[in-house]
Amino acid sequence: MNHREEQEKQQLEEYKKNPTINMADSVNRSKIGNLGALTSGGFLTRIITTLVIIGGLLLLLFLK
Predict the structure, then answer these.
(1) How far is it, in rounded angstroms, from Cα 10 to Cα 25?
(2) What's the half-sphere exposure (Cβ side, CA atoms, 13 Å) at 6?
(3) Distances (CA, A) of 7 to 13, 28, 35, 49
(4) Cα–Cα distance between 44 and 32 in angstroms, integer?
(5) In degrees to the nearest 10, what's the CA dihedral of 42, 16, 20, 41?
(6) How many other β-carbons are positioned within 10 Å of the β-carbon of residue 38?
(7) pLDDT tens-digit map of 8-52
(8) Entry pTM
(9) CA–CA separation, 50 vs 43, rounded Å?
(10) What is the DSSP string of the chain?
């Protein structure tokens, strides 16, 4: 079990103990975003996400 899975398991246990934490966390993520969710997939998903981000940055640089 990797660190991310252990952290998610602990977070689920906290949500069960105190459900209002879940709502507060959801509101914070809706305002800030969860960048970890972009890379939570497999290896291919991480590569595609990285290429899209790099491609978008390069596009912004060349358009200016």
Answers:
(1) 14
(2) 3
(3) 10, 18, 15, 22
(4) 25
(5) 0
(6) 14
(7) 888 788 878 877 777 777 777 666 666 666 666 778 878 888 899
(8) 0.42
(9) 11
(10) --HHHHHHHHHHHHHHH-HHHHHHHHHHHHHH--GGGGG-S-HHHHHHHHHHHHHHHHHHHHH-
DSSP calls for 31-46:
HH--GGGGG-S-HHHH
Token pair 């060349």: residue: 62
**Cβ-contact 40, 4 below 8 angstroms:** yes
64, two tokens: 């200016």
Amino acid at 60: L
